[in-house]
Amino acid sequence: MALLSGGGKLSGKSRSIVTTRRPKTRESGFKVKAGNTGGLYKTDKSVSAYELSPDHPVRITFSIPQDIDIFSGFGLWYAVDTNEPSEIKVRQIAGEKHRLTNKLFERPNWSKLGSMWLGDSEQPETITFEFTAIASTRFYVYQALAGTVSEPQLDIAPPALTKNMYSFAPEALFILEEGTIKIEGKEITSTKEITLKNCNRCGRYLPINTANEQQHLSFSNHCTAAHKVPCQHTTFSKLKKPGESEPSLILRNGFQLECRFCKKFRVNAALNPQRTVGQMREDGQRRRAIELLVNKAIGRSPVVQYRKEHDGRELSDDIWEKFDKKCFKCKTPLKLNQVNLDHTRPLSLLWPLDSTATALCKDCNTDKRAKMPSEFYTENELQELAYITGLSLEELKSGHPNVEVLDLLWRRREWIFSVFFEDPNFAKIHQGKDTRHLIVKALDKASQRAPEEQRCSFTEAYAAFLRNKN
Q1: Which residues make beta-bridge pairs with 4?
Q2: How far apart are CA 341 and CA 337, in angstroms?
Q3: What are the backbone dihedrals phi and psi of residue 337, each rounded to the nearest 5 degrees, phi first?
Q4: Better-scored residue on pLDDT, 433 or 38
Q5: Averaged pLDDT of the chain
Q6: Handedness of CA 382, 103, 57, 80 (dihedral sign)
């Protein structure tokens, strides 16, 4: 037993279409912490390790002080030596239940568990979790934290910004009054290395995964789109150890310079109120345009069609029930109004939202974003997903776009350029960016993922259309 105290751009741009970078229009108001570039890293080791098996669970008890209208929280970074996270079960067995961050990743990646809430009592809480495994593995703990939380930007943040603070634990646990953490299990002599990256705003070194960077912990990825990988932005993807003159850690996706907490409170909180209406609508219009084009290509709205074919039943209701009213990834129970319908195969690759959709919670849906299933789920999860959705493993593992829709859109490209683009919502220019050109680029990004013989260039076709029009 151990006792711890918490403390892109596509290549070959057409000359006829010039998309300029949006000019700098606003300042975050928060400066980079002196000496912290966000491009530094170091390594450390786990502080303890335990045998985890059917006969030897690991129990972790957090004793957490509270105060009225003060944030409290708990959390830890941990790792297991298994390729299948589904073989590990995490269950709360005592204490008040709060919304959790529970990201369990395969080896050699690190995982995290935690929560954070605004206190309504001065009474401390005691919360216990039990970890169990189907087969024997090692269970490593890097750092565990518990206590009240205070940080200047968090303390003054409006309620609208602090609704989902549980999803920022444990990286947002700036401990003010420390609690205690007790770990019960069969302790063993073993260590595991962990990589820590520097945040250029708060200056802390926080855990990252380097084996699979998209299993992110404390920092969001910088480049995830296929045409942007590997990331070529030096400070984001080429990290140095303090004192080194040359990078010694080269990343594929790269990470943001700011940790997730600082990105939200020291960058976005200041920038978002300064965004113009046009800037805020830009991404939404592009996504809506792709959705409309996909529906036009297949000749119907899949959601409406589903309702007609299933006696008025809603797609969202049936997907929710099909996935046992839980998030497929983290298994969190969901109310119907909490479920996020994920395309399973992403809309950015021209796949419609239909009966093959996946039920996810908001956090897992945000994490998945435009990833293909094979980029987000484990092998066991893919097999389960194939069984539930009816898609084959080959379809789930493929990175190809919907080539049938791509072909239909290519055949109707003249209609897209001459009719669809006449919609006033798409015929706008915001900060030097033409929405129609962004839609064309999005179609080309999907095309670049198709087999070579099925690729096409909407950019070149649109440039030719504009030349002929003029």
Answers
A1: 181
A2: 11
A3: -80, 0
A4: 38
A5: 84
A6: positive
